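Reopening: Ribosomal protein uS12 methylthiotransferase RimO still failing for me.
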Amino acid sequence: MIKVGLVSLGCAKNLIDSEIMVGHLQQAGMTMTPEADLADVLIINTCSFIDMAKKESVGAIHEAVDAREEQQKRKKQKIIVAGCLSQRFKDELPSLMPDVDAFIGLDQITQVAPIIQGLMGKEEQENLVTKGPQYIPDYDTPRFRLTPKHFAYIKIAEGCNHPCSFCIIPRIRGRHRSRTQESVIKEARQLIESGVKEINLISQDTTYFGMDKWEGERPKPRSGVDSTKGESLSTLIRELNAIPGDFWIRLLYTHPAHWSDDLIQAIAESPKVARYIDMPLQHISDNMLTLMRRETDGAYIRNLLKRIRAGVPDIAIRTTFIVGFPGETEADFNELLQFIEDEKFERAGVFNYSREEDTRAAKMEGQLHHMTRKARWNEAMRAIQRSVEQVNRAQVGRKMRVLIEEPGVARSEMDAPDIDTTVFVDKTLPVGSFAEVTIKDWRGYDLVAN
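Support: Ran it again with your exact input. Result attached.
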Protein backbone atom coordinates (compact mmCIF):
# COMPACT_ATOMS: atom_id res chain seq x y z
CA MET A 1 0.00 0.00 0.00
CA ILE A 2 1.44 3.37 -1.05
CA LYS A 3 1.62 5.99 1.71
CA VAL A 4 1.31 9.62 0.59
CA GLY A 5 2.14 12.80 2.48
CA LEU A 6 0.79 16.22 1.53
CA VAL A 7 1.95 19.77 2.19
CA SER A 8 -0.74 22.24 1.08
CA LEU A 9 0.26 25.90 0.74
CA GLY A 10 -1.58 29.01 -0.37
CA CYS A 11 -5.20 30.09 -0.46
CA ALA A 12 -8.53 28.29 -0.07
CA LYS A 13 -8.69 27.75 -3.83
CA ASN A 14 -5.45 25.80 -3.59
CA LEU A 15 -6.79 23.92 -0.56
CA ILE A 16 -9.66 22.58 -2.67
CA ASP A 17 -7.13 21.32 -5.23
CA SER A 18 -5.39 19.49 -2.37
CA GLU A 19 -8.70 18.03 -1.18
CA ILE A 20 -9.41 16.76 -4.69
CA MET A 21 -6.00 15.10 -4.89
CA VAL A 22 -6.53 13.39 -1.53
CA GLY A 23 -9.98 12.23 -2.65
CA HIS A 24 -8.54 10.59 -5.76
CA LEU A 25 -5.65 9.04 -3.84
CA GLN A 26 -7.98 7.46 -1.31
CA GLN A 27 -10.25 6.25 -4.10
CA ALA A 28 -7.21 4.50 -5.59
CA GLY A 29 -6.53 2.73 -2.28
CA MET A 30 -3.56 4.82 -1.21
CA THR A 31 -3.09 5.89 2.42
CA MET A 32 -2.46 9.44 3.59
CA THR A 33 0.04 10.07 6.35
CA PRO A 34 0.77 13.30 8.26
CA GLU A 35 4.34 12.14 8.87
CA ALA A 36 6.59 13.09 5.97
CA ASP A 37 9.25 10.56 6.94
CA LEU A 38 6.71 7.72 6.65
CA ALA A 39 5.52 8.71 3.16
CA ASP A 40 6.51 6.81 0.03
CA VAL A 41 5.46 9.89 -1.93
CA LEU A 42 5.38 13.50 -0.71
CA ILE A 43 3.23 16.01 -2.62
CA ILE A 44 3.88 19.72 -2.15
CA ASN A 45 0.96 21.76 -3.47
CA THR A 46 2.50 25.17 -4.06
CA CYS A 47 1.47 28.81 -4.37
CA SER A 48 3.19 31.51 -6.42
CA PHE A 49 0.79 34.46 -6.27
CA ILE A 50 3.37 36.89 -4.87
CA ASP A 51 7.06 36.74 -4.04
CA MET A 52 6.48 35.76 -0.41
CA ALA A 53 4.35 32.80 -1.49
CA LYS A 54 6.99 31.70 -4.01
CA LYS A 55 9.67 31.77 -1.33
CA GLU A 56 7.51 29.71 1.02
CA SER A 57 6.87 27.13 -1.71
CA VAL A 58 10.52 26.91 -2.77
CA GLY A 59 11.55 26.63 0.87
CA ALA A 60 9.13 23.74 1.45
CA ILE A 61 10.49 21.90 -1.60
CA HIS A 62 14.12 22.32 -0.55
CA GLU A 63 13.28 21.24 2.99
CA ALA A 64 11.68 18.04 1.68
CA VAL A 65 14.61 17.26 -0.60
CA ASP A 66 17.17 17.94 2.16
CA ALA A 67 15.27 15.76 4.64
CA ARG A 68 15.19 12.91 2.15
CA GLU A 69 18.93 13.17 1.60
CA GLU A 70 19.68 13.27 5.32
CA GLN A 71 17.76 10.10 6.10
CA GLN A 72 18.87 7.11 4.07
CA LYS A 73 15.67 5.26 4.94
CA ARG A 74 13.77 7.85 2.88
CA LYS A 75 16.13 7.66 -0.07
CA LYS A 76 13.49 6.10 -2.28
CA GLN A 77 10.78 8.60 -1.35
CA LYS A 78 9.34 10.36 -4.39
CA ILE A 79 8.70 14.11 -4.28
CA ILE A 80 5.99 15.66 -6.45
CA VAL A 81 5.61 19.42 -6.83
CA ALA A 82 2.07 20.44 -7.75
CA GLY A 83 0.04 23.63 -8.03
CA CYS A 84 0.67 27.20 -9.10
CA LEU A 85 4.47 27.19 -8.87
CA SER A 86 4.67 24.18 -11.20
CA GLN A 87 2.15 25.74 -13.56
CA ARG A 88 3.78 29.17 -13.61
CA PHE A 89 7.38 27.98 -14.05
CA LYS A 90 6.76 24.73 -15.89
CA ASP A 91 9.71 25.22 -18.24
CA GLU A 92 12.26 26.40 -15.66
CA LEU A 93 11.67 24.18 -12.61
CA PRO A 94 12.91 20.78 -13.89
CA SER A 95 16.42 22.09 -14.41
CA LEU A 96 16.36 24.25 -11.27
CA MET A 97 15.12 21.39 -9.08
CA PRO A 98 16.61 18.17 -10.47
CA ASP A 99 15.95 16.28 -7.21
CA VAL A 100 12.16 16.61 -7.64
CA ASP A 101 10.72 13.45 -9.18
CA ALA A 102 7.68 14.97 -10.92
CA PHE A 103 5.99 18.28 -11.59
CA ILE A 104 2.24 18.36 -12.13
CA GLY A 105 -0.01 21.28 -13.01
CA LEU A 106 -3.58 22.28 -12.37
CA ASP A 107 -5.01 19.94 -14.99
CA GLN A 108 -3.31 16.90 -13.42
CA ILE A 109 -4.84 17.00 -9.93
CA THR A 110 -7.43 14.33 -10.82
CA GLN A 111 -4.70 12.17 -12.37
CA VAL A 112 -2.43 12.17 -9.34
CA ALA A 113 -3.05 8.49 -8.44
CA PRO A 114 -1.99 6.99 -11.79
CA ILE A 115 0.88 9.48 -11.93
CA ILE A 116 2.16 8.15 -8.60
CA GLN A 117 1.68 4.56 -9.71
CA GLY A 118 3.72 5.24 -12.84
CA LEU A 119 6.37 7.13 -10.90
CA MET A 120 7.09 4.41 -8.34
CA GLY A 121 10.20 2.53 -9.35
CA LYS A 122 11.24 5.09 -11.96
CA GLU A 123 14.38 7.13 -11.47
CA GLU A 124 13.99 9.71 -14.22
CA GLN A 125 12.31 13.06 -13.61
CA GLU A 126 8.93 13.78 -15.18
CA ASN A 127 7.41 17.13 -16.13
CA LEU A 128 3.70 16.58 -16.67
CA VAL A 129 2.52 20.19 -16.60
CA THR A 130 0.36 21.17 -19.58
CA LYS A 131 -0.15 24.69 -20.88
CA GLY A 132 -3.44 26.56 -20.46
CA PRO A 133 -5.41 24.82 -17.66
CA GLN A 134 -8.98 23.81 -18.49
CA TYR A 135 -10.06 21.75 -15.47
CA ILE A 136 -12.92 22.69 -13.14
CA PRO A 137 -14.37 20.40 -10.43
CA ASP A 138 -17.92 19.02 -10.38
CA TYR A 139 -20.30 18.03 -7.59
CA ASP A 140 -19.31 14.36 -7.84
CA THR A 141 -15.55 14.95 -8.01
CA PRO A 142 -13.84 12.74 -5.39
CA ARG A 143 -12.74 15.02 -2.57
CA PHE A 144 -11.64 14.63 1.04
CA ARG A 145 -12.26 17.82 2.99
CA LEU A 146 -9.35 19.16 5.01
CA THR A 147 -11.43 21.82 6.76
CA PRO A 148 -13.29 21.27 10.06
CA LYS A 149 -16.63 19.46 9.74
CA HIS A 150 -18.70 22.61 10.23
CA PHE A 151 -17.47 24.68 7.27
CA ALA A 152 -16.44 24.02 3.69
CA TYR A 153 -15.37 25.79 0.53
CA ILE A 154 -17.07 25.41 -2.85
CA LYS A 155 -15.08 26.47 -5.89
CA ILE A 156 -17.75 27.80 -8.24
CA ALA A 157 -15.39 28.76 -11.08
CA GLU A 158 -11.75 28.65 -12.07
CA GLY A 159 -9.48 31.10 -13.86
CA CYS A 160 -9.86 34.84 -14.39
CA ASN A 161 -10.62 37.25 -17.26
CA HIS A 162 -9.55 40.47 -15.55
CA PRO A 163 -6.46 42.32 -16.88
CA CYS A 164 -5.04 43.59 -13.55
CA SER A 165 -1.50 44.73 -14.30
CA PHE A 166 -0.04 43.42 -11.01
CA CYS A 167 -1.55 39.92 -11.14
CA ILE A 168 -0.18 36.69 -12.61
CA ILE A 169 -3.24 34.53 -11.85
CA PRO A 170 -4.76 34.55 -15.39
CA ARG A 171 -1.40 33.36 -16.74
CA ILE A 172 -1.36 30.53 -14.21
CA ARG A 173 -4.99 29.40 -13.97
CA GLY A 174 -6.30 30.36 -17.40
CA ARG A 175 -9.49 32.05 -18.55
CA HIS A 176 -12.56 32.19 -16.34
CA ARG A 177 -14.72 29.08 -16.59
CA SER A 178 -17.80 28.63 -14.45
CA ARG A 179 -19.36 25.45 -13.20
CA THR A 180 -23.05 24.99 -13.84
CA GLN A 181 -25.41 26.30 -11.19
CA GLU A 182 -26.91 22.82 -10.89
CA SER A 183 -23.49 21.36 -10.06
CA VAL A 184 -22.84 23.92 -7.31
CA ILE A 185 -26.30 23.41 -5.79
CA LYS A 186 -25.83 19.63 -5.71
CA GLU A 187 -22.48 19.96 -3.98
CA ALA A 188 -23.92 22.42 -1.45
CA ARG A 189 -26.79 20.05 -0.65
CA GLN A 190 -24.34 17.21 -0.04
CA LEU A 191 -22.27 19.35 2.29
CA ILE A 192 -25.25 20.68 4.24
CA GLU A 193 -26.70 17.19 4.62
CA SER A 194 -23.32 16.10 6.05
CA GLY A 195 -23.60 18.73 8.78
CA VAL A 196 -21.75 21.71 7.29
CA LYS A 197 -22.91 25.01 8.83
CA GLU A 198 -21.08 27.42 6.54
CA ILE A 199 -20.64 27.33 2.77
CA ASN A 200 -17.88 29.61 1.48
CA LEU A 201 -18.19 30.37 -2.24
CA ILE A 202 -14.80 30.94 -3.86
CA SER A 203 -13.17 31.50 -7.25
CA GLN A 204 -10.82 34.09 -8.66
CA ASP A 205 -13.89 36.31 -9.23
CA THR A 206 -17.17 35.01 -7.81
CA THR A 207 -19.13 37.96 -9.23
CA TYR A 208 -18.37 36.73 -12.77
CA PHE A 209 -19.98 33.36 -12.09
CA GLY A 210 -22.09 32.17 -15.04
CA MET A 211 -21.45 35.23 -17.17
CA ASP A 212 -18.87 33.44 -19.32
CA LYS A 213 -21.74 31.24 -20.56
CA TRP A 214 -24.15 34.02 -21.47
CA GLU A 215 -25.21 34.12 -25.10
CA GLY A 216 -24.21 37.16 -27.13
CA GLU A 217 -21.94 39.90 -25.81
CA ARG A 218 -20.31 39.24 -22.48
CA PRO A 219 -21.14 41.76 -19.76
CA LYS A 220 -18.83 44.73 -19.60
CA PRO A 221 -17.40 46.06 -16.34
CA ARG A 222 -19.75 48.44 -14.51
CA SER A 223 -22.53 47.47 -16.91
CA GLY A 224 -25.25 46.91 -14.28
CA VAL A 225 -25.69 43.22 -15.13
CA ASP A 226 -28.71 41.36 -13.78
CA SER A 227 -29.86 37.77 -13.45
CA THR A 228 -32.41 37.86 -16.27
CA LYS A 229 -29.80 36.94 -18.89
CA GLY A 230 -28.76 33.60 -17.44
CA GLU A 231 -27.00 32.03 -14.50
CA SER A 232 -25.18 34.48 -12.25
CA LEU A 233 -24.05 34.87 -8.66
CA SER A 234 -27.48 36.41 -7.96
CA THR A 235 -29.38 33.37 -9.21
CA LEU A 236 -26.95 31.04 -7.47
CA ILE A 237 -27.30 32.53 -4.00
CA ARG A 238 -31.09 32.65 -4.31
CA GLU A 239 -31.08 28.91 -5.06
CA LEU A 240 -28.61 28.19 -2.26
CA ASN A 241 -30.73 30.18 0.16
CA ALA A 242 -33.70 27.95 -0.68
CA ILE A 243 -31.90 24.77 0.46
CA PRO A 244 -33.43 23.55 3.76
CA GLY A 245 -31.25 23.82 6.84
CA ASP A 246 -29.60 26.25 9.22
CA PHE A 247 -26.38 27.47 7.63
CA TRP A 248 -24.46 30.49 6.36
CA ILE A 249 -23.52 31.24 2.76
CA ARG A 250 -20.42 33.42 2.55
CA LEU A 251 -19.26 35.35 -0.54
CA LEU A 252 -15.50 35.55 -1.01
CA TYR A 253 -13.32 37.02 -3.77
CA THR A 254 -15.88 39.34 -5.37
CA HIS A 255 -14.67 41.95 -7.89
CA PRO A 256 -16.18 45.47 -7.80
CA ALA A 257 -16.46 45.69 -11.59
CA HIS A 258 -19.33 43.20 -11.84
CA TRP A 259 -21.47 44.06 -8.83
CA SER A 260 -25.06 44.98 -9.66
CA ASP A 261 -28.21 46.18 -7.94
CA ASP A 262 -29.65 42.73 -8.60
CA LEU A 263 -26.83 41.10 -6.62
CA ILE A 264 -27.32 43.54 -3.76
CA GLN A 265 -31.03 42.75 -3.76
CA ALA A 266 -30.37 39.00 -3.86
CA ILE A 267 -28.20 39.27 -0.74
CA ALA A 268 -30.81 41.40 1.03
CA GLU A 269 -33.55 38.86 0.19
CA SER A 270 -31.49 35.83 1.29
CA PRO A 271 -31.26 35.56 5.09
CA LYS A 272 -28.84 32.62 4.91
CA VAL A 273 -26.25 34.75 3.11
CA ALA A 274 -23.86 36.04 5.78
CA ARG A 275 -23.95 39.81 6.08
CA TYR A 276 -20.39 39.95 4.83
CA ILE A 277 -18.71 40.44 1.49
CA ASP A 278 -15.07 40.13 0.52
CA MET A 279 -14.30 42.69 -2.21
CA PRO A 280 -10.63 43.61 -2.82
CA LEU A 281 -10.62 47.23 -4.03
CA GLN A 282 -6.80 47.60 -4.29
CA HIS A 283 -6.91 51.43 -4.34
CA ILE A 284 -9.19 54.46 -4.63
CA SER A 285 -7.05 56.92 -6.62
CA ASP A 286 -8.10 57.14 -10.27
CA ASN A 287 -4.45 57.29 -11.24
CA MET A 288 -3.69 54.04 -9.43
CA LEU A 289 -6.83 52.24 -10.56
CA THR A 290 -5.96 53.09 -14.16
CA LEU A 291 -2.36 51.90 -13.82
CA MET A 292 -3.59 48.75 -12.07
CA ARG A 293 -6.11 48.17 -14.90
CA ARG A 294 -8.88 47.58 -12.37
CA GLU A 295 -11.77 48.46 -14.75
CA THR A 296 -13.19 50.78 -12.08
CA ASP A 297 -12.61 54.34 -10.90
CA GLY A 298 -12.86 56.07 -7.55
CA ALA A 299 -16.33 57.53 -8.13
CA TYR A 300 -17.71 54.13 -9.14
CA ILE A 301 -16.24 52.45 -6.06
CA ARG A 302 -17.61 55.08 -3.67
CA ASN A 303 -21.04 54.85 -5.27
CA LEU A 304 -20.99 51.05 -5.16
CA LEU A 305 -20.17 51.04 -1.44
CA LYS A 306 -23.07 53.42 -0.77
CA ARG A 307 -25.45 51.21 -2.77
CA ILE A 308 -24.32 48.06 -0.95
CA ARG A 309 -24.65 49.61 2.51
CA ALA A 310 -28.04 51.11 1.63
CA GLY A 311 -29.32 47.84 0.17
CA VAL A 312 -28.00 45.65 3.02
CA PRO A 313 -27.76 48.01 6.02
CA ASP A 314 -26.06 45.52 8.37
CA ILE A 315 -23.43 44.35 5.87
CA ALA A 316 -19.76 43.98 6.84
CA ILE A 317 -17.37 44.80 4.02
CA ARG A 318 -13.93 43.25 3.88
CA THR A 319 -11.38 44.62 1.44
CA THR A 320 -7.67 44.72 0.65
CA PHE A 321 -5.43 47.42 -0.78
CA ILE A 322 -2.02 47.54 -2.49
CA VAL A 323 0.41 50.28 -1.51
CA GLY A 324 3.71 51.14 -3.13
CA PHE A 325 2.49 50.32 -6.64
CA PRO A 326 4.64 51.77 -9.46
CA GLY A 327 3.79 55.43 -9.98
CA GLU A 328 1.95 55.85 -6.67
CA THR A 329 2.42 59.47 -5.66
CA GLU A 330 2.17 60.93 -2.18
CA ALA A 331 -1.18 62.41 -3.23
CA ASP A 332 -2.44 59.00 -4.38
CA PHE A 333 -1.42 57.44 -1.08
CA ASN A 334 -2.96 60.22 0.99
CA GLU A 335 -6.22 59.82 -0.91
CA LEU A 336 -6.19 56.13 0.01
CA LEU A 337 -5.55 56.92 3.68
CA GLN A 338 -8.45 59.37 3.74
CA PHE A 339 -10.68 56.82 2.02
CA ILE A 340 -9.85 54.23 4.70
CA GLU A 341 -10.61 56.77 7.44
CA ASP A 342 -13.91 57.78 5.82
CA GLU A 343 -15.27 54.33 4.97
CA LYS A 344 -14.36 52.56 8.24
CA PHE A 345 -14.30 49.08 6.72
CA GLU A 346 -15.29 46.35 9.14
CA ARG A 347 -12.42 44.18 7.98
CA ALA A 348 -9.45 45.15 5.79
CA GLY A 349 -5.85 44.35 4.95
CA VAL A 350 -2.95 45.84 3.00
CA PHE A 351 -0.43 44.28 0.62
CA ASN A 352 2.99 45.79 0.07
CA TYR A 353 3.32 45.75 -3.74
CA SER A 354 5.18 42.69 -4.99
CA ARG A 355 6.95 43.07 -8.34
CA GLU A 356 6.03 39.88 -10.20
CA GLU A 357 7.85 38.90 -13.37
CA ASP A 358 5.71 38.54 -16.51
CA THR A 359 3.20 41.13 -15.32
CA ARG A 360 2.62 44.55 -16.89
CA ALA A 361 3.38 46.28 -13.60
CA ALA A 362 6.84 44.70 -13.38
CA LYS A 363 7.84 46.57 -16.55
CA MET A 364 6.40 49.93 -15.50
CA GLU A 365 8.49 52.98 -14.81
CA GLY A 366 8.27 54.58 -11.40
CA GLN A 367 9.04 51.53 -9.27
CA LEU A 368 9.16 52.72 -5.65
CA HIS A 369 12.00 52.10 -3.22
CA HIS A 370 11.33 49.21 -0.86
CA MET A 371 11.62 51.49 2.20
CA THR A 372 8.95 53.79 0.77
CA ARG A 373 6.68 50.82 0.17
CA LYS A 374 7.27 49.54 3.70
CA ALA A 375 6.60 52.94 5.27
CA ARG A 376 3.34 53.30 3.36
CA TRP A 377 2.29 49.78 4.33
CA ASN A 378 2.87 50.57 8.00
CA GLU A 379 0.90 53.81 7.79
CA ALA A 380 -2.00 52.19 5.93
CA MET A 381 -2.14 49.36 8.46
CA ARG A 382 -2.32 51.87 11.31
CA ALA A 383 -5.23 53.59 9.57
CA ILE A 384 -7.02 50.27 9.17
CA GLN A 385 -6.40 49.37 12.79
CA ARG A 386 -7.96 52.66 13.92
CA SER A 387 -11.02 51.99 11.76
CA VAL A 388 -11.44 48.40 12.97
CA GLU A 389 -11.12 49.50 16.59
CA GLN A 390 -13.95 51.99 16.07
CA VAL A 391 -16.06 49.26 14.49
CA ASN A 392 -15.33 46.83 17.33
CA ARG A 393 -16.01 49.43 20.01
CA ALA A 394 -19.48 49.89 18.50
CA GLN A 395 -20.17 46.14 18.88
CA VAL A 396 -20.02 46.24 22.70
CA GLY A 397 -23.45 45.51 24.15
CA ARG A 398 -24.80 44.00 20.92
CA LYS A 399 -26.16 40.50 20.59
CA MET A 400 -24.45 38.50 17.88
CA ARG A 401 -24.81 35.10 16.26
CA VAL A 402 -21.54 33.20 16.10
CA LEU A 403 -20.27 29.86 14.81
CA ILE A 404 -18.12 28.01 17.35
CA GLU A 405 -14.73 27.14 15.82
CA GLU A 406 -13.06 25.51 18.81
CA PRO A 407 -13.58 25.60 22.58
CA GLY A 408 -13.74 29.26 23.58
CA VAL A 409 -13.27 30.61 20.04
CA ALA A 410 -15.96 31.57 17.52
CA ARG A 411 -16.53 33.60 14.37
CA SER A 412 -19.26 36.11 13.65
CA GLU A 413 -20.87 36.83 10.30
CA MET A 414 -18.15 39.50 9.93
CA ASP A 415 -15.37 36.91 10.02
CA ALA A 416 -14.35 34.49 7.27
CA PRO A 417 -12.34 31.36 8.14
CA ASP A 418 -8.57 31.79 8.45
CA ILE A 419 -8.77 35.41 7.28
CA ASP A 420 -10.51 37.61 9.78
CA THR A 421 -10.76 37.96 13.53
CA THR A 422 -12.36 35.91 16.29
CA VAL A 423 -14.92 36.20 19.06
CA PHE A 424 -13.88 34.76 22.42
CA VAL A 425 -16.81 32.89 23.96
CA ASP A 426 -17.72 30.46 26.76
CA LYS A 427 -15.57 27.32 26.41
CA THR A 428 -18.58 25.08 27.08
CA LEU A 429 -20.34 26.05 23.82
CA PRO A 430 -20.26 23.05 21.44
CA VAL A 431 -17.86 23.26 18.50
CA GLY A 432 -19.54 23.42 15.10
CA SER A 433 -22.78 24.94 16.38
CA PHE A 434 -24.34 28.39 16.22
CA ALA A 435 -24.78 30.39 19.41
CA GLU A 436 -26.25 33.74 20.41
CA VAL A 437 -23.82 35.81 22.48
CA THR A 438 -23.57 39.35 23.80
CA ILE A 439 -20.38 41.30 23.14
CA LYS A 440 -18.87 42.53 26.40
CA ASP A 441 -15.48 43.87 25.30
CA TRP A 442 -12.93 44.02 22.48
CA ARG A 443 -9.19 43.40 22.30
CA GLY A 444 -7.54 44.91 19.23
CA TYR A 445 -9.09 43.14 16.28
CA ASP A 446 -10.98 40.55 18.38
CA LEU A 447 -14.26 40.65 20.30
CA VAL A 448 -15.04 39.21 23.73
CA ALA A 449 -18.49 37.78 24.48
CA ASN A 450 -20.19 36.52 27.64
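The longest strand covers residues 434-443. If you still see a failure, please send the error message rather than a screenshot.
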